[in-house]
Amino acid sequence: MRHLTVPSRVVLGILLVFLVSCGSAHDADEKYYLISANVKIPYWQAGSAGLFQAATQLKVRSEFAGPDTYDPKGEQQALQQAVQSKATGILISVSDPALLKDDIDKAIAAGIPVITVDSDAPTSKRLLFIGTNNYRAGQIGGERLAKELNGKGNVVVFTIPEQANLKERLRGYRDALEASPGIKITRVVDMKGDSRIAFDSATEILGNDKKEHTDAFVCLEALAGKEVATVLSQHEVKDKAIIAMDTDDDTLSWIKKGVIAATISQKPYTMSFVGLKMLDDLYHHKLSTLSNDWSKDSFSPIPAFVDTGSALIDKTNVDALIAASKSVTSAPK
Q: Which among 59, 149, 154, 227 has most CB atoms closer than 10 A?
């Protein structure tokens, strides 16, 4: 057998070092977090699936953290714990921008990149926002609502007023409805992230319908739509429109039954999947500083906003959406 010359051995050694380094491009202590104010709802189960899928591809550790029920202070504690554990990077859906701003800024000051997903904290030092163009989502809903009501009727809105994304959706609805002056938003219900409040409020509104007639319900987040649909179904009410938000199984089922007229889909899976990959890139190709306002830099290496898209779902396309969702592999546990 012919012996390798010294130069050949050197070349082989360089190649081996290169291959080994390529196979271990990630550090053993890398750990990325996705933090939500309500980890148990189907919307964030889809979001966590995107996180875990990206982590599996990159061969890094990840954790989905936050309270089991809607709790902004619980989310704040989860964020603080992630910072204390020296997270490599953090994705967070901001339930209360005023509450979480300082903690986001502290994470940035500690050298931990923070990207907001789904709901933003625009006055914080977070690096960018990944999510829905919520204003446009509201416009889409408002345009469909106007058609459902033929340009005239009273509307009740269910929302969580402090959330920036829901504020933008409501603004989109209001602007879209300017073209239909016969449609009035008569009440805005703060459901505080609690599905029971949505159910009880819808029941109460229905009971007062003769005094203050309601023609439609707009649900700006995922929990309310199916609760309102349940109330209308139980009372056999068929003359009121519901425009929901998101695509959990119950909401889609009510669309198929004709109780919910339409819903606006989002992509929480994509938000988390893309978000983790961006955090990973920021870790391995660090910015010169995390404290710049990159949104005002014409030569910024990162975008200010990544729009993951939204779409109207109704009886015409709900079956296609259900089939597509079934084809997605469940996230690893």
A: 227
Q: Residue 245's closest CA among 19, 41, 10?
A: 41
d(CA 165, CA 94): 9
Q: What is the pTM of this model?
A: 0.84
CA distances from 153 to 25, 210, 219, 312 (A): 59, 14, 16, 21
End-to-end C-alpha distance for the chain, whole angstroms: 50
Residue-by-residue pLDDT tens, the chain, 333 positions: 444 444 444 443 443 333 334 444 677 789 999 999 999 999 999 999 999 999 999 999 999 999 999 999 999 999 999 999 999 999 999 999 999 999 999 999 999 999 999 999 999 999 999 999 999 999 999 999 999 999 999 999 999 998 999 999 999 999 999 999 999 999 999 999 999 999 999 999 999 998 999 999 999 999 999 999 999 999 999 999 999 999 999 999 999 999 999 999 999 999 999 999 999 999 999 999 998 888 889 999 999 999 999 999 999 999 999 888 776 544 444
| Distances from the Cα of 76 to the Cα of 122, 127, 191, 209, 282, angstroms | 17, 18, 20, 40, 23
As a whole number of angstroms, the distance between CA 264 and CA 115 comes to 23
What SS3 state is found at 82?
helix
How far is it, in rounded angstroms, from Cα 114 to Cα 111?
9
- DSSP bridge pairs for 306: 130
263: number of CA atoms within 13 Å, CB side? 30
Beta bridge partners of 89: 32
CATH 3.40.50.2300 domain locations along the chain: 28-132+267-309, 134-265
Helix axes 72-84, 97-109, angle to 10 degrees: 0
What CATH topology corresponds to 28-132+267-309?
Rossmann fold (3.40.50)
For the domain bounded by 134-265, which CATH number is listed? Answer: 3.40.50.2300
